[in-house]
From TrEMBL:
The lineage of its organism: Bacteria, Pseudomonadati, Myxococcota, Polyangia, Polyangiales. Keywords: 4Fe-4S, Iron, Iron-sulfur, Metal-binding, Pyridoxal phosphate, S-adenosyl-L-methionine. Belongs to the radical SAM superfamily. KamA family. This is Lysine 2,3-aminomutase. Its cofactor is pyridoxal 5'-phosphate; [4Fe-4S] cluster.
Amino acid sequence: MSLSAKRPSQFKVFRRRDIDSIPQLAALPASERNAMKVVSAVLPFRVNNYVLDELIDWSNIPDDPIYRLTFPHRDMLGDDDFRRMESLLATNPPPAAVEAAAREIQGRLNPHPAGQLEFNVPMLDGQPVRGLQHKYRETVLLFPTQGQTCHAYCTYCFRWPQFVGLDDLKFASNEVDEFVRYIQAHPEVTSVLLTGGDPMVMRTGLLRRYIEPLLALPQVASIRVGTKSMAYWPFRFLDDADADDLLRLFEQVVRAGKNLAFMAHYSHPRELATTAAKEALARVLSTGATVRCQAPLIRHVNDRAEVWEDMWRTQVRAGAVPYYMFIERDTGARHYFEVPLVRAHEIFRDAYARVSGLARTVRGPSMSATPGKVVIDGTPEIMGTKVFALRFTQARDPAWVGRPFFARFDPRATWLDHLRPAFGEKEFFFEPSLERMKYSRENPLKPRTRLSLIDEVGVA
Ligand SMILES: *Cc1c(COP(=O)(O)O)cnc(C)c1O
């Protein structure tokens, strides 16, 4: 791996059908490449020349964290599913047969965790507004139609169903007008978060069409962009044909008196270590934008305290702000990536204890679940009972925020819906009101399943 700023003149993408033409894979056994083809028939795969040439350490395959982060691995599918898809592919089947088998397996990977259709659909003039999500009072999420892909895919991505075509994201053709009207109808909204996919896959001119109308709205104090582009394609901010124009757009936002905040997805310190990555981050900051960093804690990728300590230090040194450590969500190949809550808290605490106060802006480990963002504060013993101490940092009802609550300790729990109240209560304090929200008039869609405590689309 070279840390010099190689300047690929062009973005080059590699998908499933290109696996045999990725030069670095030629050295691997054919069985490994075959396993990739089997898994990527079910889960999305996409990588690019920068990730291949500068991020992955090819002398450390398969354990290299960036390789695990981007390349499919056999164990991401269950044994039966893997073998079934493997034998099907060996028969040189028609694409429709592969697709049908893939759909069936995908359907069992919890592609639509409960809550998806029951919550979060904003209404305007009695009609649901597509491409918007409004979960927490101050912040609206906007999913631009053309921003629904990424420069490369993370194998743990919780938005994977949209990349394999399971979710057909149908947005209104006049979506910019609609979301502006929605925000104006909701004076409590002060922050708009563009997310995806990755909005930075859009050309500057297109991005401008979404951002400029927001500059005229006095209620909007901050415009945020959720992105992995600084890690996966830093040249977006350096050499791409419209990179300079992009930076002028950022300056324009800042001049308009808005905080422009990048919610940058960095999974591993190596993503901050290349010359291109450092230059991209510096260039974004030079426009007056701020960069806040977040990622989930993922087995095989970043499940050691030293990795987070290093990452947070590097971010602070570069002028970025550590923001969230998330818990991996309940979907896709989660069995391959998940870390027990108790272990997640240990990793967080060990890393947090070793960095200066400037890096302790970070919060976590945090679950983006149906009722809100729940942080694990620790595992104290209270009157002889070991518990999880929990707290909302964001909630559907702002009254829930900052109120400690307790769950019975369970060393195997990996998500909020594995937890039960600590002291014999029937349910957690927020559950009755959450249940009522599900049936409220605001909500156009009837609930389908019993509520499970997971959220479908958050901001990981
Ligand atoms: C995390 C999140 C936000 C933003 O929360 P902040 O704590 O303000 O960063 C907004 N909407 C959704 C759905 C989220 O998951």
